[in-house]
């Protein structure tokens, strides 16, 4: 039919940078392979499902007034291969049209006319229709951008001089390592033309390290991987001095010295990014029982797998554990339809609340957890859902999580909590924030060994980072128990050079940390990494964690005890000011440093002293100040700063106040953060109520009873989820999750390995990196 809306429409075509959501609905995981296909809005290019139980396309049209959509349905051809489509590569990024394996059916519909089909070929609409059909899907656009931004140039390529082919060099020598018989993964030294094989990998693949051996012998730091050179003048390049993948902006000129014509080259080997992605996807935690029996695939509500987007297993494992927590599931799953109907964000793909609801619905509805059939007619693993829009929303503008590189799972958990805090401020005054299940307080006790007086302070917290004991044995490192790790956490630490306000001189002190209250869900990171020559290396230590009930009562703080005398406050500051929290620091960086084995007080101080300039700067500060007598002394605010000296941006005030924070507090935190809105937000989120926090500190100093029920809360916990890591570094390898569903005799464990989900009758938490314990009330 021809309708008035179609005749009068003047839609604009999407540019190359415009996100076009044409493969999947932005509010559920229905996609162009489903029976109804996907409707792409011809005004804003949002993707919506046009049928089924949700009909988000119609809902979007009614809310936005965008009536015209392009329906796209993909149908597999009868001769289509059962193999997975080829992965997107870094140096050969191209659009996969699916012309060989699929056919596409498209038509324009008008939701202003009850979803009726519109006459095809209208000249005012057809250019936009064709632009949408040929546009790159939004999720692929994010991946291309993220991958392209990973590699940069360095001065060693820019300043390369003294190039000269070594004796005996010829083009015939480029086909084999100069020191062994390797003919693949070869690296050409751009200084002398030596050909060396790559590094030996953990699984025996790669090479024999002759490329790096040449650098160590000669100091020639820059090289290029033969086989990855393209006619466009790109290739994998590496700088051994920087110890990182780099880009050679002068590749053609540098290769010409050795008689290599870039224009005549063809890429014959996989790039580093492709190999890394392949290796990560090959990681496969045992899918068999101890006696070799194959674990059967599982599917259903709460048992939906998450496809690996390329180094995204750190996110998938955390999200499976997080949505295994009742509070998170109940917050976002049953309310998904209500949120979509009332959300005021124009683009659902960029609304984190929309994407949290979408992911919760995808995981718990059971709609997308369908076991497939293998070639022999048996049950095979489900395809899973791709959390592309969620990743783009939660990682927006983040310098690490926005890339396609592997990341630390615990750091992602901290980042997720912060993002949820921000968006939940605008909903029900933050009262629905599921992060509250992680909230608890710690009691920090400090005692001067000179006068024996003590000081107690209560600090808010959301997780615990536990050290492990490194005990070498013949077969490696001896196992440790969870209790031993908790004892280390609660043990006294020496504080040298403490400036005691009672002794009025530098003395020695001891400090310890215990629980002042217990959370509903306790998130625990085990610090399995140590620094070796400034490089974090993984400690392969088995941590014996019971699957049954664990009591934390022995680690509960009791406040000031009879016979203990409080330390006096500083003469130049009131009592509450002395207990004021430290200036806002980037908690993500603090956690990253803690995971390397540094004490928290050093991490906080280093990040604060270096002005939140990142982990590298903070780590350098720690090493430079290792011998400082007050390195382990927490910084305190001895006086109220002169807030009038720090100017504030009215736009930043409005931005933070719109999140639900009191305006006077926003202005105060902005001044304290030097006008930095990001630091002020960290402060606002980490200290919900200054007065309450100060009152809690005073209560601990005086021995007064805390106002909440912290002393009556149960200290019994049960393990309900954990994230395990395989590999030598947090920046490579693979993460999986194990989650307990149900409780008591009806509980059962399941393992989530990206899209694969299996029942796990004998979970193995010994090698886990992040644990989730639920309080037994």
In short:
Its EC number is 3.4.19.12. It is built from 23 helices and 30 strands. It is of the alpha+beta class and 777 residues long.
Architecture overview:
The protein is an alpha+beta fold and 777 residues long. Among the domains are: 4-147, 2-Layer Sandwich (Herpes Virus-1); 155-280, 2-Layer Sandwich (Herpes Virus-1), CATH 3.30.40; 439-482 and 494-516 and 558-702, no CATH class. Strands 15, 21, 25, 26, 27, 28, 29 and 30 form an 8-stranded mixed β-sheet that branches. A 5-stranded antiparallel β-sheet has the order 2-1-3-4-5, sandwiched between helices. The longest helix is centred in the middle third of the chain and has 16 residues, at 409-424. The protein is globular. The N and C termini lie far apart (63 Å). Residues 80-98, 571-583, 636-645 and 690-708 have low confidence and may be disordered.
